[in-house]
Design goal:
alpha/beta; 6 helices; 7 strands
């Protein structure tokens, strides 16, 4: 009756609200949440999924927020050969084109497009995109992570409005402080 919840961090408002909502729902169903954070580290996610002292013996299900963890999920999402075939897994925001386990994806592209359109509708024409690494338009065609999907949404709104999209307007979150 224990559900393993793995998120990237506890400190941000998004993750604290997500963790609180998941925990409340798990408890309301008479189950116990066991919550870990990865700090966006694929190694920490792998440890949480396979090397944790409780892995494979204590959990009846796992919910993993997958943003930023890349291909670390592939061996775990297949659920073959690890002796845990009965374990229920759910990936949040994995953004795989063909998920191998149950997945819930946030509307990353649509939300970013709507946010950008909101600014455009209010007359903004010189809009910076903060939090993403620049990617050329062509590279965004097959986006498979939340960050690239968001960038594709912003890029699409700019394009529809006839506004430029180039490297000078895109700043990674760490770059902003400099």
């Amino acid at each position: 009756n224990i559900i393993h919840v793995i998120v990237n961090e506890f400190d941000s408002p998004f993750y604290s609200k997500l963790t609180q909502a998941l925990s409340n729902e798990i408890v309301s169903r008479g189950l116990i949440p066991f919550i870990e954070q990865t700090q966006y580290s694929p190694d920490a996610a792998e440890h949480a999924l396979s090397s944790n002292p409780f892995s494979g013996q204590l959990f009846d299900g796992e919910i993993l927020h997958a943003t930023g963890l890349g291909n670390i999920l592939l061996p775990f999402s297949a659920e073959k050969g690890d002796g845990r075939d009965a374990l229920i897994r759910l990936l949040l925001d994995a953004c795989e084109e063909t998920p191998t386990v149950d997945a819930v994806n946030f509307p990353n592209e649509e939300a970013e497009r709507a946010a950008m359109q909101h600014l455009i509708d209010r007359g903004c024409r010189n809009i910076a995109i903060v939090g993403h690494r620049f990617a050329p338009r062509a590279d965004l065609a097959h986006a498979q992570n939340a960050f690239a999907l968001r960038l594709r949404g912003a890029c699409g709104a700019l394009s529809d409005a006839g506004l430029p999209y180039d490297e000078s307007m895109v700043f990674e979150a760490g770059d902003v402080a400099n």
